[in-house]
Specification:
145 residues; six-stranded mixed β-sheet; globular
Length: 145
């Protein structure tokens, strides 16, 4: 009888441990999912996200990804083919040399404040080594963030 009691207690404790760890995993997954669904579009919130994570938020897709979904820039149909998404993540070449240069530095661009229709002139440009700039005049001038 004592052996049976010990065995039942062991099974109960193991069951509780497994059940509680499963709850923690579900809570972590819910937190991760809520982070993925947040739509960040403003200068400060996107810059803050890039600073913390080294990449764009999940609501940004590259031009190629958007085209695969049926995006036609001249039609301004991004909200129809990719609801909640903005264009971002493509390489910015810095051809005019207005941004700081350094060997190995790669610049990326992202549309900011996009709502619908054709893309505006607001962009964040960020580098693979942590620099972040904004432009409100379609790459004519840049301001560090």
């Amino acid at each position: 009888m004592l052996k049976l009691w010990k065995w039942l207690c062991t099974v109960l404790i193991l069951g509780l441990a497994v059940g509680l760890s499963g709850c923690a995993l579900i809570a972590d997954q819910e937190n991760t999912n809520s982070q993925k669904t947040a739509v960040l579009t403003g200068f400060n919130e996107v810059a803050e996200y890039i600073s913390k994570h080294g990449k764009l938020p999940d609501n940004f897709i590259t031009k190629n990804e958007a085209r695969k979904l049926g995006w036609e820039p001249q039609k301004g149909n991004l909200p129809e083919v990719a609801p909640g998404k903005s264009i971002g993540g493509d390489v910015f070449r810095n051809r005019e040399g207005l941004l700081p240069k350094k060997n190995g530095r790669i610049w990326y661009e992202a549309d900011i404040n996009y709502k619908k229709g054709t893309r505006g002139s607001d962009r964040i440009v960020f580098s693979n080594d942590g620099l972040i700039y904004k432009t409100t005049d379609h790459y004519k001038t840049f301001t560090p963030m």
